[in-house]
Write a structure and sequence with these properties.
The chain is 23% helix and 26% strand. The protein is α+β, with helices and mostly antiparallel strands. The chain is globular, with a radius of gyration of 13 Å.
């Protein structure tokens, strides 16, 4: 088991790793819409929040030897399911067919009152 860390994504805000690699798989922790440089939450609308989350997710995957094309499963946590369609528009900018398997659920609250959080499982390219 190997811990994955990068300054290109927000540091963990609790006792967890940005991601863990085990064999050829990478398991990311949920990414929030935080700017990794400033710590500012990009949360004004679902499009900007989703874009920042996916940029953070991509940075963690790259640090672990994977990328968005090697993601096999994502779990999406939305604060409001009414954002589903707008979220999908941004999501499709980062993932191409064959799209990863995905679960998407509405939750009562997310850390830092974020609109969206995404975790992923990917296959390392190495």
């Amino acid at each position: 088991m190997k811990q994955i860390r990068t300054a290109e994504a927000p540091a963990a805000i609790g006792p967890y790793s940005q991601a863990i690699a085990e064999g050829q798989l990478i398991f990311t922790s949920g990414q929030l819409p935080m700017d990794p440089t400033t710590g500012e939450l990009r949360n004004t609308d679902i499009a900007s929040a989703a874009r920042q989350v996916l940029l953070n997710l991509r940075a963690v995957l790259l640090a672990g030897g994977a990328d968005m094309s090697t993601v096999v499963k994502t779990t999406v946590f939305l604060k409001d399911m009414r954002d589903f369609q707008a979220f999908n528009g941004v999501y499709a900018e980062f993932f191409k067919e064959p799209f990863p398997a995905r679960s998407c659920v509405q939750v009562a609250a997310l850390p830092k009152d974020a609109r969206v959080e995404i975790e992923a499982v990917a296959v390392r390219k190495e």
